[in-house]
């Protein structure tokens, strides 16, 4: 089947699709079709395509043809099932479920039991031989329909349900009998009439049509948009709608519903993983309202269904060649498959599963590399709790998403967001989460619930976001109204510190110390692969990193300013230094020497200041070249405005004023204050800095070049292999570079003559101004390499200062969708990226052997690394901690491009 179908066709039977049609049928619809094709027991149904949703969202109304198409498919379904939708004596009931291309768990709407009414509920009871089941199904429909379709506050239904249980003296829904549920249905209908301004619809087709529109509308709810921004899912995809004949897990103890994984999504280990709940519908499992039993217990409850499920799970994993997440229902001993998808997993599970599948021959190494990403690797590098430290255990739940999270206890999403924005680290604690908690989950360091399991809303969403999560901590009583939790005699109030260990499921009172991640210890050479769980993870990371390093074209360097950072970067796999910022060498005790340079009134004073700095700079470079022996080291000459080396103007003014009032003026302070006023600029980042310093302060750049050259000569004479590169910052025109380069070449020649050592020092520039990018062809005539300074390039292209705007309006821009992500985090491909691409092409046209790199923070951003591979850079440079991430993503970019070429 091709996606290029007749544009008038908006509805597809499950028999018509396949798993590759996610763009058209959404993930759920495509996979229901695939399971149907595999001959698995899928309830019959049909899918309304994403194209119909797009028309609806664009025009505000459904396509004109849609109603008739749905009617035709509904009629075919009714014939197949031998009963009609909502038929009074034997009703066909259907679910109306969302299903976008990418999984968005709990973010969009679903309505079950469509077709029930005051008349058909009686027929359902008669056909099922179970009056309680029928009325329970009807109250569920009114509750879901009222909240989802008619916009009634869901708490009103929950309060009525809780009141009914309290009046009966029971604690769980299943203990309400048919008479109780009949009364509850009447209450629910009154709530709908009062709060929706209309009665609950009795016409089954009207129920279906309104539910379809509600699913379309749910694509643009606040929580769905927030989730898409968090997961970087495009906002123009729309959602499909799946109409599926109902099967019932709430028909008694021989029925039930569950969620299963073909491998543990938390660890990646093979086994029987999932949750099962007898006498329940699917929402009960996902919502975490009732605590489930482990899937393995299904074997003793219903062995025939269990055995069949195990075979199906094996079939699906082999077919999809990946961890599969499965939803199923058992209706009086008959197993039905309601959904499958490639399951979300933790970072550790992703690496383990990828290598396991290689060993099983299901995928190759290139595919394994595509199954993991840099964000997951970064998660594995975070610290973990020190289990040997003294700690107070509060309780234990299900380890749903690993990590070590410490923060102040908060009991609602609003507080989590508010405190987080004030700089507090928080742990969101709930009985169970629901989609409305998404913003609080994003803000929190970790999530703790007293209900639910590995397949609950909290667990699934947390795993997708890489958040630490513990679910189903039953011994912890959560009181959201009083804003506290209790465990026995221990009470934790809102604001108290708690620690949540998503790897073990343990929850501690107070702050537990952390220790380095085993993955970091591996990168630093302090851990090797072995037999235990941590070593197994390290072994998986090692295998995938080794393959990434074999296939990647981009080299990865480090931003490092001293020997200690350089040595660590090298252990992390750095292939050189892409940015050494020499201004960091002028801080601390050396600041006074820089002050003397700035205050120099005569040539002699200036030369004396430079002469004092020269040996210190040289010693720094010797250490750096030694730590990176045999690898390139790009040294950027002094870049920041000189005022950054002087005291704060306000602080200095107060000091001078106080001294004058005491008749005890300090001559040096007076001169410093004059210098500060002289150097003051309204916008120093666009003022006297970078190459401009070298042009207006005689001898400054010459001193730095001399220090570099003498250090390189000394290392070379000591049988070392220094590979220094000199980078001129903030060049906007080739004439600037030519003047500085002429001076640098002269200094290098002098050092070569004095030391009798041949030095091959390359000289290049940073491309960090739009003009430099636009005239890159001219600049390449005088530069042997370019390094893109994308931090400044982003500031100058967009016209805003990173230090000022991120706190002032970036949040609003992200919320309004102007930014999908901060342009300082991921490169703006259309603007900044276009300049980079243009400069690469122009530079290489002038100088084919021009070396090209990037040394802004984008060099360690996964998505940006793929862009730099695409435009043809030679290397990326980033902070030492991000080097493994850049290495992995460079490998993924190469494997991805090879795959594209082969296709």
UniProtKB/TrEMBL annotation:
Family statement: Belongs to the PEP-utilizing enzyme family.
E.C. designation(s): 2.7.9.1
SUPFAM superfamilies: Glutathione synthetase ATP-binding domain-like, Phosphoenolpyruvate/pyruvate domain, Phosphohistidine domain
Residue span, PEP-utilising enzyme mobile domain: 424-505
Top-level taxon in the UniProt lineage: Bacteria
PROSITE patterns: PEP_ENZYMES_PHOS_SITE
UniProt KW Hydrolase keyword: no
Keyword Magnesium applies: yes
UniProt domain Pyruvate phosphate dikinase AMP/ATP-binding: residue ranges: 63-291, 297-348
Cofactor(s) listed: Mg(2+)
UniProt enzyme class: transferase
Pfam families, alphabetized: PEP-utilizers (PF00391), PEP-utilizers_C (PF02896), PPDK_N (PF01326)
UniProt keyword list: ATP-binding, Kinase, Magnesium, Metal-binding, Nucleotide-binding, Pyruvate, Transferase
GO molecular function annotations of the record: pyruvate, phosphate dikinase activity
Catalysis: reaction(s): pyruvate + phosphate + ATP = phosphoenolpyruvate + AMP + diphosphate + H(+)
Record-annotated PEP-utilising enzyme C-terminal domain positions: 539-890
Entry protein name: Pyruvate, phosphate dikinase
């Amino acid at each position: 089947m091709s996606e290029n179908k007749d544009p008038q066709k908006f509805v597809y039977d499950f028999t018509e699709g396949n798993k590759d049609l996610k763009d058209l049928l959404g993930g759920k619809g495509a996979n229901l079709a695939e399971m149907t094709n595999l001959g698995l027991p899928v309830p019959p149904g049909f899918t309304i395509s994403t194209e119909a949703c797009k028309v609806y969202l664009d025009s505000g109304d459904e396509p004109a043809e849609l109603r008739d198409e749905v009617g035709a498919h509904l009629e075919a379904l009714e014939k197949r099932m031998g009963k009609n939708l909502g038929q009074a004596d034997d009703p066909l009931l259907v679910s109306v479920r969302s299903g976008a291309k990418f999984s968005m768990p709990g973010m969009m709407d679903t309505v079950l039991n469509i077709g029930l009414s005051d008349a058909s509920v009686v027929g359902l009871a008669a056909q099922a031989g179970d009056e309680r089941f029928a009325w329970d199904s009807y109250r569920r429909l009114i509750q879901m329909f009222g909240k989802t379709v008619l916009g009634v506050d869901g708490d009103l239904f929950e309060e009525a349900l809780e009141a009914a249980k309290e009046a009966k003296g029971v604690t769980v829904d299943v203990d309400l009998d048919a008479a109780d549920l009949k009364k509850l249905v009447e209450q629910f209908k009154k709530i709908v009439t009062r709060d929706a301004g209309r009665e609950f619809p009795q016409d089954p087709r009207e129920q279906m049509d309104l539910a379809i529109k509600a699913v379309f509308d749910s694509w643009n709810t606040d929580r769905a948009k927030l989730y898409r921004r968090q997961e970087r899912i495009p906002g123009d995809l729309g959602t499909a709608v799946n109409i599926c004949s109902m099967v019932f897990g709430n028909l008694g103890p021989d029925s039930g519903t569950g969620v299963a994984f073909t491998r543990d999504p938390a660890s990646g280990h093979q086994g029987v993983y999932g949750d099962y709940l007898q006498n329940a519908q699917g929402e009960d499992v996902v919502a975490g309202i009732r605590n489930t039993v482990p899937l393995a217990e299904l074997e003793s409850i219903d062995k025939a269904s269990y055995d069949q499920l195990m075979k199906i799970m094996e079939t699906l994993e082999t077919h999809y060649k990946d961890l599969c997440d499965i939803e199923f229902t058992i209706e009086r001993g008959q197993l039905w498959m309601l959904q499958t998808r490639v399951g979300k997993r933790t970072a550790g599970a992703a690496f383990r599963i990828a290598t396991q599948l290689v060993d099983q021959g299901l995928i190759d190494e290139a595919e394994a590399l595509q199954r993991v990403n840099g964000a997951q690797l970064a998660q594995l590098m975070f610290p973990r709790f020190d289990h040997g430290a003294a700690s107070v255990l509060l309780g234990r739940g299900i380890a749903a998403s690993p990590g070590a999270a410490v923060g102040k206890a908060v009991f609602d999403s609003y507080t989590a967001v508010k405190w987080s924005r004030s700089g507090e680290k928080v742990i969101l604690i709930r009985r169970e989460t629901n989609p409305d908690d998404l913003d609080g989950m994003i803000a929190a360091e970790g999530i703790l619930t007293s209900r639910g399991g590995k397949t609950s809303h909290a667990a699934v969403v947390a795993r997708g976001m890489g958040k630490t999560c513990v679910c189903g901590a039953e011994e912890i009583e959560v009181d959201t109204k009083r804003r506290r939790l209790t465990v026995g005699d221990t009470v934790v109030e809102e604001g108290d510190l708690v620690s949540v260990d998503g790897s073990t499921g343990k929850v501690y009172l107070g702050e537990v110390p952390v220790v380095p991640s085993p993955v970091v210890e591996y990168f630093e050479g302090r851990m090797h692969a072995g037999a235990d769980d941590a070593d197994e993870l390290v072994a998986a990371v090692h295998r995938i990193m080794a393959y990434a390093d074999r296939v990647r074209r981009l080299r990865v360097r480090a931003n490092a300013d001293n020997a200690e950072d350089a040595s660590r970067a090298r252990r992390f796999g750095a292939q050189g230094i892409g940015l050494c910022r020499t201004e960091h060498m002028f801080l601390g005790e050396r600041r006074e020497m820089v002050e003397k340079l700035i205050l120099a009134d005569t040539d002699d004073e200036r030369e004396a200041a430079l002469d004092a700095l020269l040996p210190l700079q040289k010693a720094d470079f010797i250490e750096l070249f030694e730590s990176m022996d045999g690898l390139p080291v790009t040294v950027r000459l002094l870049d920041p405005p000189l005022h950054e080396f002087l005291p704060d103007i306000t602080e200095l003014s107060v000091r001078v004023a106080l001294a004058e009032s005491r008749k005890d003026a300090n001559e040096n302070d007076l001169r410093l204050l004059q210098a500060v006023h002289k150097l003051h600029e309204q916008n120093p980042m666009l003022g006297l800095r970078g190459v401009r310093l070298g042009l207006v302060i005689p001898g400054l750049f010459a001193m730095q070049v001399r220090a570099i050259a003498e250090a390189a000569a000394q290392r070379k004479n000591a049988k070392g292999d220094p590979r220094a590169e000199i980078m001129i910052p903030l060049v906007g025109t080739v004439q600037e570079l030519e003047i500085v380069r002429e001076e640098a070449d002269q200094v290098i020649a002098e050092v070569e003559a004095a030391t009798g050592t041949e030095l091959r020092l390359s000289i290049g520039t940073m491309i960090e101004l739009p003009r430099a990018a636009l005239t890159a062809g001219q600049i390449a005539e005088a530069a042997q390499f370019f390094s893109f300074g994308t931090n400044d390039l982003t500031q100058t292209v967009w016209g805003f200062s990173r230090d000022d705007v991120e706190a002032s309006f970036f949040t609003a821009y992200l919320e309004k969708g102007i930014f999908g992500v901060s342009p300082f985090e991921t490169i703006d491909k259309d603007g900044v990226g276009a300049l980079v691409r243009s400069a690469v092409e122009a530079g290489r046209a002038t100088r084919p052997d021009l070396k090209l790199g990037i040394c802004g923070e984008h060099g360690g951003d996964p998505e940006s690394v793929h862009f730099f591979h695409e435009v043809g850079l030679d290397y990326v440079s980033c902070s030492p901690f991000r080097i493994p991430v850049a290495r992995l993503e460079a490998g993924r970019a190469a494997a991805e491009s090879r795959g594209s070429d082969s296709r």
